[in-house]
Design goal:
It contains 3 helices and 12 strands. The protein is of the alpha+beta class and 197 residues long.
Length: 197
């Protein structure tokens, strides 16, 4: 059930707007984290790295297909087996691995992890992982937006020498903290606004 549906039911049951806003603020971060994500989030240039694509099922019907396109400059060398899932490796005309498609069945309220090994680019960069999740019935969610605050952002991994990421990581943490504060203050303002009835 979506947060807005829960809020409507609580309002009909006599809950105050303040209580509803607090519940929505608690639930919203959890919902925002439920995306197709590749781990680790940071790695070193040239590293031989084990990556894992984690995909949760956010619907009431099973996820039946997951497609991942690999970033340019990354050289994928092998895949781990995942019980209950069939792997199709996508290649370009030069036979380089460019993506992967896993087909299987992921029930609601579950997640699956797809491991693979790759060699990182030699230079500092950010890898973007466009992922496409298909549900039974044909709905397809494209986790491809370059905007990390979008509804369906692409996962990304920072490739940088150890120690060179501190300033960037601190800046990102600051932006996330400011955005969280603004959301909380907005929720508080809505909760404290006098009702029109």
């Amino acid at each position: 059930m979506r947060l807005s549906g829960i809020a409507s039911r609580l309002a009909r049951a006599g809950w105050s707007r303040t209580a509803i806003v607090i519940l929505m603020m608690i639930g919203a971060p959890r919902a925002a984290l439920a995306h197709a994500v590749v781990f680790p989030k940071t790695s070193s240039p040239g590293a031989y790295e084990k990556y894992v694509l984690r995909v949760p099922n956010e619907r009431d019907v099973p996820t039946i297909r997951v497609e991942l396109h690999f970033p340019r400059g990354l050289r994928v060398v092998s895949f781990g087996d995942v019980a209950g899932w069939r792997l199709e490796v996508l290649r370009d005309t030069a036979q380089n691995i460019t993506g992967a498609v896993w087909t299987g069945s992921l029930p609601k309220e579950r997640f699956v992890e797809f491991p693979f090994i790759a060699v990182n680019p030699q230079e500092n960069t950010t890898l973007s992982w466009p992922t496409y999740q298909t549900y039974e019935g044909g709905e397809r969610v494209e986790w491809t937006s370059p905007d990390s605050t979008a509804k369906t952002p692409a996962s990304s991994t920072l490739i940088a020498e150890p120690g060179s990421t501190n300033a960037g990581t601190a800046r990102i943490a600051l932006y996330v903290a400011i955005a969280s504060l603004l959301i909380a203050l907005t929720g508080l303002g809505v909760a404290l606004r006098p009702s029109s009835s």
